[in-house]
Amino acid sequence: MTRKTVRIAMNGVTGRMGYRQHLVRSILAIRDQGGLHLPDGTVLWPEPILVGRREHALTALAEQHGLEHWTTDLDAVLGDDSVEIYFDAQVTSAREDALRKAIAAGKHLYTEKPTATGLDGALELARLATKAGVKHGVVQDKLFLPGLLKLKRLIDGGFFGEILSVRGEFGYWVFEGDWQEAQRPSWNYRAEDGGGIVVDMFPHWEYVLHELFGRVTSVQALTATHVPKRWDEHGKPYQATADDAAYGTFELEGGVIAQINSSWTVRVNRDELVEFQVDGTEGSAVAGLRNCRAQHRSATPKPVWNPDIPATEVFRDQWQEVPDNADFDNGFKAQWELFLKHIYADAPYHWDLLAGARGVQLAELGLKSSAEGRRLDVPEITL
What we know:
alpha/beta
């Protein structure tokens, strides 16, 4: 058995997602399990180098987790030949420039999304990385959620027959920050800082729809800033300039229609924070983060509309739980492992910067659709 140390510059790990999901639950979790075993017997041992702007936050994290390496000098770590992979979980506005530097330094790239603030920049990153011959991946974590994995199992097994429509509900109430601390950073609500729920969530919806049901061919969206005044991390009030809710309709290749509501101004009255209902000629299913329930055509009750009497049925009880039938690992960790195998064992991997550019494109067109009040085609993009 050969152990190979893989040095990874991790930029943005002092943020919520970069810390919890990527550092702790992915890279450190891989170390806790003894490394990542490759088919040839090699064991990959990830060695994170924490990168950020706040020295005190980096040193605190390093001490907490017993890590040796951290830096506030991105250029220096990219100039280190022993560093093979650059990971980015910064705010969106800082990401594109950092990724360009990493490509120029010959590093393999793994990045959160959106990959850039606009489609032109996202496509240029994909072209530069391909030309440089570095391997590149974009986080598409929701594909690895247990609920969506079970939904994909139903799709692959032909459960739905012809799929007709998809309805998605995502969101929760984000506290304004005045008398309860907001659970999202304030930059999310300032358009000038790259905030907004369309920029944040439409890239997710692009890859979920694309991977499970078909490429998005048109979008019609309506956005809103329902809560115009919020309070930041220091208790100071500010005007929210970015959208905090978006109501989108998407036409997919093959004729499936998807409707997805995304909101940080909705109180949850559903089983999970995100749910997708898929209806087909032979059956339907509702999938969330972890659970999936299904109802086949042969077991569909006969509902009758009668507003004059109370409901006589508990409709949720008429659905069957889809069993796990497998052990599901953390979705972020699962994709990290696939990307590392892609680099060091040449395993297949298609969630690349071009896939990331499709998400940027959909967000850009979603905002334009709302501004212009019309449905827009979503052209297929290539390098």
